[in-house]
Amino acid sequence: MKKITLLFAIGLFSWSCANSQKADMPAREKNIDYPEGVTAVSAIEQQLDNSLSRAVLAGGCFWCVEEVFERVRGVEEAVSGYAGPEAPRPTYELVCTGTTDYAEAVAVYYDQSKVSYEELLTAFFAGHDPTQVNRQGPDVGPQYRTAIFYQNEEEKKQAQAYIDQLNASGKYDAPIATTLEPLGVFYVAEGYHQDYYPDHLSQPYVANVSRPKVEKFTKTHPELLKEEYKSDK
Predict the structure, then answer these.
(1) Is 17 an active-site residue?
(2) What is the rounded CA–CA span in Å between residue 130 and residue 212?
(3) Average per-residue pLDDT in the chain?
């Protein structure tokens, strides 16, 4: 199900509320020049500090996941894209059909001296519902699955240990549905998807679906936030 089809169903009543929040959003520096269409991740990474580490995670709509990680201390850039085992170049329209193995995902570029991989996992699981299978709220299909695309055995080991810990904690009423998948390829999504949240706060989907997820993370994990987001209410 495409997110765009939900906009009118959600309603336009949220416009004034969301629009009033725009003035309160910290200014975000644009560090990357994104092309209009889908591109190989290498075209983006060459614009970043090569000392940064990368994690690739999927938790439903990438607009929501990207915004959560943009607020995490030590994260230099969060890039929306498509992750999966397939080689053919995807597009948003193709992935939205749910007929590919791609998931809407986010590549998180972070400084390991400021934030650990385990802390990124904390932010990831706090920013979505990891018990839902092939969906997140109104977004339905395998492209919206919850997944950790590990890049090495150490990441896989840490992610599995974290999932085991969550399952044992009793925090959730259902088992964690997050899959652990080896990262095959990651393509950077079309430019208009990048930094979508702060640029579209008055859009009904962002106001009613994305914003509650972001605010929940912000309130529950202030210890992980960049300084400019710690005063968010």
Answers:
(1) no
(2) 16
(3) 89
Instruction: Say if CB 20 and CB 107 are below 8 A apart.
Output: no
State how beta strands 146-150 and 53-59 pair: antiparallel
Q: Where do the structural domains in the chain lie, given as residue ranges?
A: 3-229
pLDDT digit string (tens) for 187-217?
A: 999 999 999 999 999 999 999 999 999 999 9
Instruction: Of 63, 77, 80, 87, give the one whose Cα is nearest residue 214.
Output: 63
DSSP state of 72: B
For residue 196, give both structure tokens: 């979508």
**What pLDDT, on the 0 to 100 scale, is given for residue 187?**
97
pTM of the model: 0.89
May I ask the CATH class of domain 3-229?
A: alpha beta
The single residue of 17, 61, 64, 96 carrying the catalytic annotation is 61
7 to each of 13, 59, 61, how far by Cα in Å? 11, 20, 14
